[in-house]
Design brief:
single chain, 2 domains, alpha/beta, HAD_sf, disordered N terminus, seven-stranded mixed beta sheet, Rossmann fold, HAD-like_sf
């Protein structure tokens, strides 16, 4: 499996009864030793050991991951929205009327704090539609290769979480099928996520904009239109998993209340199950937020995780590294 940061190790599969120290190498080196790391490894050992009563055949080792806030950062706002704002600025010369027309004028004058949700949706539709699928993919690829985060100054793909990259690799090498199930746009993520996470584009499930099949000067195209077919969030996540994958995951990973139903559905199945929340507790290396945050709110999910014994990653304590080293 190819990820941006590839962890190399020789994995010795141990049974659930064996201690974590029986591993000849560390499959999750960016995770500090502790309960969360130990339970992940024990779960993987359990479902991959053919002598275990909780053994799961490779075809059924389905793991689903949220993206924003779970596999990469999501502050000060979702990165796909930052993409839309950058596109407004890039296209402003072709639209001189935007300088006096809201919400575009708010972006061009730097008054982002005055944007309402409807304003953001308007700009997403403006920058994500009216073009072919190929044109949109190329636009996203150019942006992700050149854009920098407004706070850290890092390329966005440098703000993926190293511990989660290791976890993706660890599961992949144990014959799991990793899927992204995100509220982000599926076409936006597919333009770059396969290269960064090593997850094939057909395993990326997200919010879908409408499309139409058109003939433009003898060339057939799938063109992106302004409608929204599915907003892949909350209760829609397990439904889209069923529609796209056709199987209940045995492991799910999220960071917000928008992922709650996905984790609920995963853990309602029979046999060994793993549900994990990434809790953003590190104001020094990333951001600290949960119950009151407008982006990535973790409130009901945090309570349910404690009640049901789901794993909760304390980013400040459980991760010795956040972003990949350069």
């Amino acid at each position: 499996m190819k990820t941006k940061i590839k962890t190399t190790f020789a994995l010795v599969v141990a049974s659930l009864s064996l201690p974590v120290l029986a591993q000849t190498s560390d499959p999750l080196p960016s995770w500090n030793d502790g309960q969360v790391k130990q339970q992940i490894i024990r779960f993987v050992n359990q479902v991959t050991d053919s002598s275990s009563p909780n053994y799961v055949a490779p075809a059924d080792r389905i793991a689903t991951f949220d993206n924003d806030g779970t596999l990469w950062s999501e502050k000060p706002m979702y990165f796909q929205i930052l993409f839309a704002l950058d596109q407004i600025k890039a296209q402003a010369k072709q639209h001189p009327e935007w300088s006096k027309k809201e919400p575009y004028s708010l972006v061009l004058s730097g008054q982002l704090d005055k944007l309402a949700l409807d304003d953001v949706l308007t700009m997403v539709k403006e920058t994500h539609t009216g073009m072919s699928s190929d044109e949109f993919t190329e636009t996203v690829k150019v942006w992700i290769a050149t854009a920098k985060h407004p706070v850290t100054g890092l390329p966005y793909t440098d703000m993926v979480f190293q511990p989660m990259l290791e976890l993706l690799d660890y599961l992949d090498e144990n014959q799991f099928k990793n899927f992204i199930v995100s509220g982000g746009g599926n076409a936006f993520m597919r333009a770059w996520a396969s290269d960064v996470y090593g997850i094939p584009s057909e395993r990326i499930v997200g919010t879908r904009l409408s499309t139409e099949f058109v003939n433009e000067d003898g060339k057939y195209q799938v063109k992106r239109t302004a409608g929204i077919e599915v907003v892949d969030d909350k209760a829609e996540k397990p439904q889209q998993i069923y529609q796209h994958i056709g199987k209940r995951p045995i492991a799910s990973f999220g960071n917000s209340d928008g992922d709650l139903q996905m984790l609920q559905w995963t853990t309602s199945g029979d046999g060994a199950r793993l549900a994990l929340y990434v809790h953003h507790t590190d104001a020094q290396r990333e951001w600290k937020y949960d119950r009151e945050s407008e982006v990535g709110r973790l409130d009901k999910g945090l309570d349910e995780a404690k009640q049901k014994g789901w794993l909760v990653v304390d980013m400040a304590k459980d991760w010795n590294q956040v972003y990949p080293a350069k």
